[in-house]
Structures are given as structure tokens and as C-alpha cells.
Amino acid sequence: MPNINFVMPLWLYWVLLGGFPFLAMLAARREMAAAKADSGAPNISASVAYMFWLTAGFLGIHRFYVRSRWGFVFLPLFCAIVFVNAEIKQLREDISAIRQAERTANFELRGARDEMQRNVAGATDKLKAAEAKLAKAHDDTQSATVTITEWNRIGGGFGAVIAVLLVVDAFLLPGLVRRAREKERVDPAHRFKPIELPPEPAAHVPEAPATPVHRAIGSAVDWAGRFVSYWTLLSIFVYYYEVVVRFLFNSPTNWVHESMFLMYGMQYLLCGAYALRSESHVRVDVIYMRFSPRGKALADVMTSFFFFIFVGTLLWTGFTYAWQATTIGEVSFSEWGVQYWPIKLTMPIGAALLLAQGIVNLLRDIHILAGKR
Fold first, then answer.
1. What digits encode the pLDDT tens for the residues 68-82?
2. Are 82 and 142 in the same domain?
3. Most CB within 10 Å of its CB: which of 44, 60, 169, 260?
């Protein structure tokens, strides 16, 4: 197969970060509504089918998902591509060895010519041997290049067949999903069996004084935390792409790792307030957990000074960094060249959310100490 030289455009990266959570939340809401309408029973989903088509369609997983045996058509084609790539990889290693032998022959040829000029005994035989070795290296290189071209053509043919099948299935999937759902309604044996998971404990969100401002802050913090949580799903798709192109198509990327660790940095900053609101931060509370509610409130009020120093510093320095990155148009030093100002802008935004939630928590603790709750 030919190399995959795709590099994610910067505009697509920002569109995915901004739009993917909305699409994911919409799909989740639709699936929850469909499950509720169908008495909560699991059902085949068109969204999931298209997700399988996009991410693992070359294996026919979307066909297996809708209970279609035509998925087995994809498997031999995929195995053929893997075999072709293994052959191409071996040929590339052979070409590297041939080129090394060619360089060695050139070195011996120059040495033999130098000895010929100095009339060294046996120089003629060395010259003939070096020329023969160099000619063989040239022939081997041309032969291997022709063979690689032929294997690329064969692999490209298998890939083209898979691409055509995927394009056809893109139009057929809605009908396949409808027929699979109809089979589920007629025969419950066609339903997927639900996975029984133990119930998760509900996150403890301490109550705050019920004022419009507090409710607005809580809504903003919750929305920001839920929004960036869907970025984790996005990283699964991106790293899956990296694994496929690296190990199946011998085309590793540089932009995948950079894009994802920058995304996780922004996620860390924007969901900090959500973690504070739900008391999800990791802390050593061997002594704190033994306090009464008023004792905990007193400890939180006394230590809040250090919290506000940290948040204030993060807010000020984050705003400074974001402003500087915006004014100079700062980009990364890698070949991808992603803009840094949106990334650094999450520092003051996350700090502002963290500060607002910290104030809400402080007011809650003061109300507890005042005996109003």
C-alpha cells in the first residue's frame, strides 16, 4: 500500500474540539430517548453503526454489528493488504541493505582506481571486482524498486475494493439498521444482551446557598466539565487512527501525539472547577474525614487562603500568557505549527471557573459555620 501522508488541518482540529462534544451529546440524548421508548431494551443504533463504519469499516465491523454476513467479505481483503504491507516492508529493508552494499562498492571502486594510478599490484583485479559489485547493486536496486511498485499496485487494488465497498455501505447502512431493528422486534433472540454493570455511586456535590448567581455558576461549571469530558472519546478515535496507519500502512504521524497532549492539557484546565464542585480531586484526608460538618467547614475556610492565592496566580499568569500568544501569533515549534493562543486561553478561563466555584464553596462553608444550614 502507498504511504498515508495525511496531516490533520488546523481548522479541522479546532472544529472537532468545538463541535464533537455537541454531536456526541446529541447522539447520546437520542439513544437514551430511543431506549426509553423501547422500554430501555438495547437496540441497534444508526449512530453506532456509522461509528463502526468510519473507524473499523475496513474490517467489516459495521456489517457484523447489523448482523450481516457480508462482513466476511472485508476480512480476506484486509488480510491481503496486511500481507502486501509485510512484503513491502521486507523489500524496503532489502533496498536499505542493497544501498549500503552500493556505497561500499563505490568506496572500493575509488580505492582501486587510486591504486591503478599508483601502479599497485593487483589493482586491476580489485577494480574489476568493485565494478562487478557496483553493477550488481544497481541491478538489485532496480529489481527491488520494480517489485515494490508492483506490490504497491496490488495493495492499492485491494484498498480500492475496500473503499468502494465502504462507499456503497455508507448508503446502505440506514436500510440495514432498519432491517436489523425489525428482526429485533420480531425475534427477541436477535437483541444484544445488555452488560450488567454494578451501579456507580452518585457523585457527591455539596449544596450551596440557592441563589440565582450560585445556580448560574453551578450550571456553567457542570456544562464545561461535561463538554470537555467528550474529548476523551475523540482521543480514542485519533489514537486508533495512529495505530492503524503506523502498523498497517507504515506511515507514522507526528501530529497525533502533539494534538492529543495539548487537548488533554486544555481538558485538565477546563474541568478543574467541575472536579472541585463534585469533590473529585485526590487528597489525603485521613484527619479531615474525621471532622464534623462544621469542623470540615472551618478547615476549608482556614485553608481557602492558599487556594485563592493559587487560583489568583493562575488567573493572572494565564491571562498574560494568553495575551502574549495572541499578540505575537505564537505557534508550536513542530512541523504541524498549531496556534497556541486558543490553548493558552483555556488557562484564564479555567482559572475563572475555578475561582467562581471556590467562592461558592467558601460561601457554603460560611453558611455552615453561621448555622444557617
1. 889 999 999 988 888
2. yes
3. 60
